[in-house]
Amino acid sequence: MAYSTVLLLCGFSFLAGFVDAIIGGGGLIQTPALLFSLPQYPIPTLIGTTKIPSLFGSLMGAFQYSRHVAVIGRFIGPMMAIAFGASWLGSWTLTQVPNSFMKPLALIILIGVFIYTLTKKDFGQVSQKFVTTAQQQTRMWLMGAGIGFYDGFFGPGTGSFLVLGFIALIGFDFLKASAHAKLVNASTNLASTLFFLNEGKILYSFALPMAIANLSGAFLGARLAILKGNSFIRVFFLLLIAATIVRFAWDLVK
């Protein structure tokens, strides 16, 4: 194991944790870094290795947000359980079939998300009550199933999709959406981590130091998001979505 590679990956993991705690999408930084740095390993092993640092970071983000933002406990608990099961199923599916078709689909969705968020200035700036309690419950649980499976099967952008869903479908503002998204993302990361642990597809010599770096980045990112509020998170969200679109488009045309 080259220590320079470990240090490099820890740097990327710190940045991933920082970004992910603010608006999600840390996997867009951390996963490519592993793929490029360790091309000699199978992709499922590298994906599995990213799950431990992602889990540590999402747990830290969830802890920081929970101290400052109220969450809907009666719905978020079942949503996390649903997302856990769906993520496990997605991780298992990844070991059975390729996921290459996901990137073009995700690209189309992200372009639509970017245009909508850019043109709708008040999107996610304040919480709005536009669904009934029963609808809120149903939508959150369906989100847990769909996005949970996506995270286990493909992953990049999961946090951003969760934030978008909480704003567009539930009526949260950016800060509240980020707080709930970190809880659900912690659940999906835990499921994938346990799955890949069971499969023996984790490189601990890389995963453990990266986990410490990711956790540190998440601590700073969450504190900054809480301090700066919705306007700051909205700008960060747009920048991240734009970067994701560019990356996915580049992967498709190169």
Automatic annotation (TrEMBL):
The keyword Repeat does not apply. It is a multi-pass membrane protein. It comes from the Bacteria. The keyword Membrane applies. Keywords: Cell membrane, Membrane, Transmembrane, Transmembrane helix, Transport. The chain crosses the membrane at residues 45-63, 75-95, 101-119, 140-170, 202-220, 232-250. It holds the Pfam family TauE. It is found in: Cell membrane. Belongs to the 4-toluene sulfonate uptake permease (TSUP) (TC 2.A.102) family. This is Probable membrane transporter protein. It comes from Spirosoma flavum.
